[in-house]
């Protein structure tokens, strides 16, 4: 069942949002893996998936610790297409599909941050270099949405 910890799975970040990954990495000292996980969680919480147009940086799923992998498994199990069917984790064809699904959730999470947090500070390619509190804005968004009532 632990297909994510196998060495052959490689996750790709988005080239479209490479600047955002870089900025969060620099400001918060988060690795690309942690940023990807944050974006995937935001995307999954908001049921938002977006296609990954161009691949950016990569990291191996084998670098995930148990807690990180469990978070991704939870995201997958809560996706309607999986339907809480843990047996799907053993199907090699579905594993590729699920990897893509997680990348799509991360892309959707980045889309949400651009639309709702970074807004006019994002020109479609880069963040405004003069603005220096992106990390604060992003963390405020995450905290506000953790406490938000779903209905």
How does this structure look, described?
This protein has one domain (3-146). It has 5 helices and 2 strands; from the N terminus they run βααβααα. It has helices spanning 18-28, 32-45, 66-77, 92-118, 134-146; strands at 10-14, 55-60. It has a two-stranded antiparallel sheet with strand order 1-2. Helix 2 (32-45) runs parallel beside helix 3 and helix 2 (32-45) crosses helix 4. The longest helix has 27 residues, at 92-118. It is globular.
Provide the spatial order of strands within the biggest beta sheet.
1-2
N-C termini distance: 34 Å
* Helix-and-strand structural type: mainly alpha
What ranges have pLDDT less than 50 throughout 5 or more consecutive residues? none
- How many distinct domains? 1
Identify the overall geometry.
Answer: globular
Quote the average pLDDT. Answer: 86
**Helical segment tally?**
5
Compressed to H and E, one letter per element, the order equals: EHHEHHH
Specify the biggest β-sheet.
2 strands, antiparallel
Report helical residue fraction.
Answer: 40-55%
- What's the Cα radius of gyration? 15 Å
- The count of strands amounts to 2
Strand residue content: 5-15%
